[in-house]
Amino acid sequence: MSSSQTTNDASRQHRALDAAYGRALAFRLPDLALRPAQALAFAEHEARAQRIAVDVDGLTGPMRHELLQPGREAAQEWLRLRDDFEIALQPKRADLDAVARLDAQIAQERADMAAELDGAEREWRKNPRYEQIDDHHSRSRHLFDEFRDKHRNRNAIMFALNPFYWLLMALVLVTECFINYHAFNQFWGVPAVAFGSTVVLGVLLALAAHEHGKLLKQWSFRFGMQREPMARRTDWRLFGLSSGALFLVLAFTGWARWAAALQAIGAQAQTSALGDIGVVAVHPLRDVMISLIANLGAWMVSVILSYNAHDADPDYMHATSQYRVARRRWNRARGKLLEQLRHVQARHEKSIAEKVQSAETRRRGVTRELDMLEQVRARGAAIERDTTAAMHRNLYVYRDALLRLGRESHGSIAFINVATQAPISLNEFGAMPLTTPPLFLSAASF
Q1: Of the candidates 15, 14, 23, which has an alpha carbon nearest to the alpha carbon of residue 82?
Q2: From the first residue on, what is the mean pLDDT of each consecutive set of 10 residues in the chain (446 residues)?
Q3: pLDDT at residue 278, rounded to an integer
Q4: Over the range 294-316, which residues count as b (16 or more CB within 10 Å of their CB) and which as e?
Q5: At what angle do helices 284-309 and 191-217 cross, to 10 degrees?
Q6: Domain span including residue 203
Q7: CA geometry: angle at 18 spanning 12 and 20, to 5°?
Q8: Which of 92, 192, 337, 442 is at 20 to 30 A from 398, Cα to Cα?
Q9: Which of 243, 251, 176, 249 is nearest to 215 (CA)?
Q10: How far apart are CA 392 and CA 394, in angstroms?
């Protein structure tokens, strides 16, 4: 076949398709509405027999046949135009079917991926250990969300649980050692004992400051009347113990500094051939005050640090800490599952991408035809919907006319149930739901 003949055939097919497409979109439904006067005239004709048979769909013979005939004719006309369009599409039908088949395969692949992911998740949840971890994570998350809502989405202050916080406290301890070591060494005269005493008192001061800062920040929570008396007494004892530790540190360092100063004065009291040369003036009260102020300063720095490192609501801190621990355990437990889920997802997504690429390749050759097909399908759905709705309204209008004649006849017109051959009242006939028979019997294949 020559190229010119092939071109002519393609042009002819395009013209035929355009013509069929234009006729299908140009189709307009006739006026299918049944006027009340027309309905009454039809009803009078049916009522002449004075015996009206009603089937299970609530329809009489004329309702099922004559009354629906205009809708059937409109449906047949549309189906004829649609079939003409379908015939004009036949040269492209293979490509259109291939696109539809690939789209269906893509949808099925996505459904299979979702089912496999869900199955893997369910299988993993059967593990008792994972179920326990997941349950603990859910409960801790629920408690954390409750506190977060209570505090208006404010994050809890959790710096007190950060290792860097304790590093800063350790720096305060080192500073405390620098302040007191000289006096302790001068007092004891043994460096090891002086160093040990300095470290012990430094740790004691740091812990006291930690508790003071925490209790001051959470004062309204820990010492409020809403708290249990036993819990309040426990916190009061802790506050007293911390204050006692502070007093012990200050008292011991002050006494050691005073004793060291007296020792220095005693050592300089001997007569020297050089007179006052090389003699250092020692003021015990001044030395003690400087030492106490330095120790109090270290304590205040630690208290301020502890105060700002704690949240005002210790329960919120506890809930946040529990949730973080549970979240880490949950993430570790789900690590293998997530790896499996990613593998399943990647495998299906690779297959989906290949099918999408194939569908796009086939779609590019029939883009125009696909657009036409979608518009004709949409037009057909609208025609079927409007026709069925019009026929349904006509059935109710006609039944109202029959009911009117039945009431005016004073019982001379009988309504009979076809299934039981028993008479039915006007109220029963009027209450029966009307089922419109399908008019577009062959539309499902399009």
Answers
A1: 23
A2: 62 85 90 89 85 88 88 91 90 87 92 90 81 88 92 92 94 89 81 89 93 94 88 92 93 85 64 47 76 92 95 93 92 83 90 90 87 92 92 91 86 84 87 85 47
A3: 47
A4: bbeebbebbbebbbebbbebbeb
A5: 50
A6: 159-267+283-310
A7: 105
A8: 442
A9: 243
A10: 5
427 assigned to some structural domain:
no
* Tokens describing residue 81: 């135009």
Angle, helix 163-188 to helix 284-309, in steps of 10 degrees: 170
Residue 44 maps to a domain = no
- Assess if residue 343 is contained within a domain: no
Crossing angle of helices 367-408 and 93-125, in 10° steps, is 80
The residue with tokens 């002819």 is: 12
Distance CA 317, CA 209 (A): 19
How many Å is the Cα radius of gyration of the chain? 47
Q: Tokens 């690939």, residue?
A: 102
The two tokens of residue 16 are 């035929």
H or E segment and range at residue 58: none
Which of 223, 248, 226 shows the shortest CA–CA distance to 234?
A: 223
Which tens digit of pLDDT belongs to each residue from 317-367? Answer: 999 999 999 999 988 888 878 888 888 899 999 999 999 998 888 888 888
CB 103 within 8 A of CB 366: no
Number of domains present in the structure of the chain: 1
Distances (CA, A) of 391 to 61, 66, 89, 435: 15, 11, 31, 10
Amino acid of residue 102:
L
**Which sign, positive or negative, has the C-alpha torsion 137, 142, 143, 145?**
positive
User: Which residues, at least 6 apart from 240, have a Cβ–Cβ distance to it below 8 Å?
Assistant: none
pLDDT of residue 375: 93
pTM above 0.85, yes or no: no
What are the distances in angstroms from CA 90 to CA 84, 86, 96, 347, 374?
10, 7, 9, 36, 16
**Strand locations in 309-442 (E):** 414-417, 423-424
Please give the Cα distance from 380 to 423 (Å, whole number): 41
**Structure tokens belonging to residue 229:** 């008396």
Question: How many residues make up the chain in this entry?
Answer: 446
Under 8 Å between Cβ of 285 and 194? no
Backbone φ and ψ for 54, nearest 5 degrees, come out as: -120, 125
Place of tokens 């005002």: 312
Report the alpha-carbon distance of residue 219 to residue 305 in Å, rounded.
Answer: 16
φ/ψ of 424, rounded to 5, equals -125, 150
Q: Is residue 212 part of a domain?
A: yes
Query: Which residues does 288 contact at the CB level (< 8 Å), separation at least 6?
Result: 254, 257, 258, 261
Query: Which residues, in sequence order, are bridge partners of residue 54?
Result: 417
